[in-house]
């Protein structure tokens, strides 16, 4: 059962997203981005710092409320919910957990206010699921570090004004040789090599980044040298709950389209939902979707209670991402040929939801995490 506050947050975000975001989702995709004015409106609802303290401008909500908000955003626009998830789950959360007081004061207000969008630069061309294979180097110099290397598949790499970089500071220490830096992108040595052309989530840029002997001051190191792997892993716990919530939201939107169509479309003298083949399909889809929703909310509630939730977060992401693809595909099937047309909305949702089985840890990685916990 949700609390009154949780229900109110869900309903407020739903009303905003359905009125302000969903009607323009196709246009945002065609234009490859979002107006900054929208980010400012979202900041007014606390969406860029859902669980952050009010002292930094955050909404100070719990993880369940955050998951519910992401579901509603994703139901309106999958790509936008990805940007919001990274901002909350990795940038804001990472600074709150491990950032210095100076870093928090310097960066959190603009992140939470939607004035700065953040990116998370961990993945490389040969280092995705295996973080220990990171090759980007940070070499200690007088007053700071020199970072050289390249990152791949970085969300918001183009629009981001701030990037959290995971780099090798001790090449002989394996995972313990990784460190995390929080770096403004408006400095010499930061370059966007390529903006990728993707199957879906076209309004959210995904980039290849390059760092050419980029100088980073000492006060931009997060935590201590060697803590980068732990920082990245801790943030991925929240991130995977966020991705799972996105999946539920996108699948919900597709299912609603399918149910409405099935109640309206007539065949052999009655609505097609009254034909057992269609009705049973929708019943199965609704059941899988609800199971995914409850798994997400359970993982979020565990996090709120202070319990370690990495395994549950992986379960939620694994199940919700695979269930979402099945739900959206089944919804498309219900509409027949119309489901394959862009104007009915399900085609876009399918393109947007498919990546959820890939980013922030593939389904194979989630199974590995779960298996190790057994």
TrEMBL record:
- Recorded protein name is 3-sulfinopropanoyl-CoA desulfinase
- Tell me the keywords, alphabetical order: FAD, Flavoprotein, Oxidoreductase
- Record-annotated Acyl-CoA dehydrogenase/oxidase C-terminal domain positions: 226-374
Q: Which family does it belong to?
A: Belongs to the acyl-CoA dehydrogenase family.
An example of a GO molecular function for this protein is:
flavin adenine dinucleotide binding
**Which EC number(s) does UniProt give?**
3.13.1.4
As its record notes, the protein acts as a catalyst of: 3-sulfinopropanoyl-CoA + H2O = propanoyl-CoA + sulfite + H(+)
Q: Which residues constitute the signal peptide according to the record?
A: none
Which domain of life does this protein belong to?
Bacteria
Q: Where is the Acyl-CoA oxidase/dehydrogenase middle domain?
A: 119-214
Task: Return any one Pfam family short name.
Answer: Acyl-CoA_dh_1
User: Ranges for the Acyl-CoA dehydrogenase/oxidase N-terminal domain?
Assistant: 3-114
Which prosthetic group or cofactor does it need? FAD
């Amino acid at each position: 059962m949700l609390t009154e506050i949780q229900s109110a947050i869900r309903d407020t975000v739903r009303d905003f997203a359905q009125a302000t975001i969903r009607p323009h989702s196709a246009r945002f995709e065609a234009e490859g981005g979002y107006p900054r004015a929208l980010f400012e409106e979202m900041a007014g609802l606390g969406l860029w710092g859902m669980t952050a303290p009010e002292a930094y401008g955050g909404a100070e909500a719990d993880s369940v409320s955050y998951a519910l908000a992401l579901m509603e955003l994703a139901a309106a626009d999958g790509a936008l919910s990805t940007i919001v998830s990274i901002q909350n789950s990795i940038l804001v959360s990472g600074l709150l957990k491990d950032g210095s007081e100076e870093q928090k004061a310097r960066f959190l207000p603009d992140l939470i206010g939607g004035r700065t969008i953040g990116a998370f630069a961990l993945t490389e061309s040969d280092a995705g699921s295996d973080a220990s294979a990171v090759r980007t180097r940070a070499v200690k110099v007088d007053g700071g570090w020199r970072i050289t290397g390249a990152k791949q598949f970085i969300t918001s790499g183009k629009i981001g004004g701030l990037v959290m970089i995971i780099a090798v500071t001790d090449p002989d220490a394996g995972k313990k040789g990784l460190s995390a830096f929080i770096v403004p992108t408006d400095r010499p040595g930061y370059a966007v090599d390529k903006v990728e052309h993707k199957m879906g989530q076209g309004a959210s840029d995904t980039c290849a980044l390059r760092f050419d002997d980029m100088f980073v001051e000492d006060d931009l190191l997060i935590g201590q040298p060697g803590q980068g792997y732990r920082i990245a892993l801790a943030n991925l716990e929240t991130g995977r709950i966020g991705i799972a919530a996105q999946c539920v939201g996108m699948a919900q939107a597709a299912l609603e389209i399918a149910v409405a169509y099935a109640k309206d479309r007539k065949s052999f003298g009655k609505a097609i939902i009254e034909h057992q083949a269609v009705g049973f399909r929708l019943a199965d889809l609704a059941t899988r979707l609800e199971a995914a929703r409850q798994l997400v909310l359970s993982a979020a509630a565990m996090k709120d209670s202070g319990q370690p939730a990495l395994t549950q977060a992986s379960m939620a992401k694994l199940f919700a991402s695979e269930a979402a693809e099945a739900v959206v595909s089944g919804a498309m099937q219900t509409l027949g040929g119309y489901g394959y047309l862009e104007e009915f909305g399900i085609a876009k949702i399918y393109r947007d939801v498919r990546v959820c089985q890939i980013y922030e840890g593939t389904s194979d990685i989630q199974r590995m995490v779960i298996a190790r916990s057994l």
